Amino acid sequence: MISLPYLEPDTPFPPVEHALDDPNGLLAYGADLSPGRLLTAYSQGIFPWFSEGEPILWWSPSPRAIIPLEGFRASTSLRKLMRKRLYQVTLNRDFAAVIHQCAHIPRIQYGQTSTWITEDMIAAYQALHELGLAHSVEVWKDDKLVGGLYGVAVGKVFCGESMFHCLPNTSKLALAYLVEHMQQHGGDFIDCQMPTEHLMSLGAVSIERDAFISRLNGSNQTLDQDGYICSDYQQTWCAQALSE
Questions:
Q1: Which strand (E) or helix (H) includes residue 59?
Q2: CA pseudo-torsion sign 136, 147, 111, 65
């Protein structure tokens, strides 16, 4: 029988080393999806994932998949697509539209297929976005949204949550422009959570949880000493065009 810590709204997360091996990374359940809880989670290498009707489940798997920015691999076809400038790519132009599109894409994770982005999750990440901590990249064709991704940024790390495409390679295009943008602003890496063949083809590597936490701790300065979002962070993630 699995025994998991239950979190009250004010209960801190247990150490990530206490996460289960099977299922990989399951750490605790309960608490809420408030902005403070979510920021604390991502800053500690923890993220929520659960299906409709389940309690809030918190995860910190090992190994962890990350894309080091210098290791991102753009295929020849993707590089050609970027040079053609067929699409407009933006940052934080329409977060709500991106997360709703992603919610309609079934995602396989931990052996399950489900549309795991519930209405509660949408509301939680929208609130985090309005505080300037969750971000989206949009790909547009003639002012129609055709691809994109969203996630949470902690310091110099982008914790990817989901992506979608309506036209070929438009989700990869969003990722490529995100990498470029982060490189221009001194970013470190993209957290991809669990390794997949698709992510590995884009340059993701697997690292053990302790190495991930160590690297995250060196890059996750999001708030200043007074508890406000750092000015460098705000400048990096303000709404803007990413393509010319």
A1: strand 57-59
A2: negative
